[in-house]
Amino acid sequence: MDGSDQSKMMVMKKRKPMRVMVAMDESDFSFHALKWALDHVFVTPEPAAEKTEEASPEEVDMVVLVHVQEPFVHYGFPAGPGGTAVYATTTVVESVRKAQEENSAALLSRALQMCKEKPNIKAETLMLEGDPKDRICQATEQMHVDLLVVGSRGLGTIKRAFLGSVSDYCTHHAKCPVLIVKPPKETAK
To answer: Per the database record, which ranges form the UspA domain (predicted)?
Structure first.
């Protein structure tokens, strides 16, 4: 068997379908990361001329779009003379939660639409509540993902120290490889 026959054999070898999680938020950075992953991580091989059958669902790459909304915490605040504490009513709390869920659903729907444009990829969404850093890392472990993709806001060292960084935290705590997609050069500051 010469070198060209060996390379043909390697191409014909089946690869394990990838399970990739992409962390989504309201920023353009997360949508840039999703687009980058769809264009570069999920490379569709050229179909062989003689092979025309559809891939089974077990052979298709999977992308899990995860959005973590922080829990709504209604604090009491002093109002009026004497500093009487005022708390949000149940209807206000429910209204805020409903708005958060609607925003999350719209965000994930937009991301899901981007995935539908890519052939041979199955996509699903996951909406969680809690601290994004912790919940994303927990989800990667529970779902046995092969790769976590997160966008980077391009924060400097000082801002990152004060604000924290989901991408930085995930690189140190996720139980899978993490790919941080930096913002495009024209928007990075």
So the answer is: 19-182
